[in-house]
TrEMBL record:
GO terms for molecular function: mechanosensitive monoatomic ion channel activity. The gene is mscL. Pfam families: MscL. It comes from the Bacteria. This is Large-conductance mechanosensitive channel. The chain crosses the membrane at residues 16-37, 78-96. Homopentamer. Keywords: Cell inner membrane, Cell membrane, Ion channel, Ion transport, Membrane, Transmembrane, Transmembrane helix, Transport. Its main location: membrane. The keyword Lyase does not apply. GO terms for cellular component: plasma membrane. It comes from Pseudomonas cavernae. It is found in: Cell inner membrane; Cell membrane. The lineage of its organism: Bacteria, Pseudomonadati, Pseudomonadota, Gammaproteobacteria, Pseudomonadales. Channel that opens in response to stretch forces in the membrane lipid bilayer. May participate in the regulation of osmotic pressure changes within the cell. It is a multi-pass membrane protein.
Length: 133
């Protein structure tokens, strides 16, 4: 079996296709979450803390000299990234929690027995009653 045919067999397996779809949907979901965090959540948080934009927070370690740019420690971008991560992680946690709750509710409600199962139960009960006589 050639490498090309092995790769083709690997690439068309269901798991690989499912993984690819998951990655594509995950990337699109990531864009939605990033927009939610940056455009919806962070502006009110910035307003609550007095309009401070974390990404602008920095310490200049060495001022610019001629053609040499300044050396800047941009710790605000790091703080912003950590906050974004925490908000995204919390949103995913809440989503997974809701999905798990729905799964548990679905599993908790057992399906009603079918007519065949009811008939078999009646036959079983009749046979047990005959054996006990």
């Amino acid at each position: 079996m050639s490498v090309l045919s092995e790769f083709k067999a690997f690439a068309v397996k269901g798991n690989v296709v499912d993984m690819a779809v998951g990655i594509i949907i995950g990337a699109a979901f990531g864009k939605i979450v990033s927009s939610f965090v940056g455009d919806v959540v962070m502006p009110p948080i910035g307003l609550l803390i007095g309009g401070v934009d974390f990404s602008d927070l920095a310490i200049t370690l060495k001022a610019a000299e001629g053609n040499i740019p300044a050396v800047v420690l941009s710790y605000g971008k790091f703080i912003q990234t950590v906050l974004d991560f925490l908000i995204v992680a919390f949103a995913i946690f809440m989503g997974v929690k809701v999905i798990n709750k729905l799964k548990r509710a679905e599993e908790a409600a057992p399906a009603a027995p079918t007519k065949d199962q009811e008939l078999l139960s009646e036959i079983r009960d009749l046979l047990k009653a005959q054996q006990n006589k």
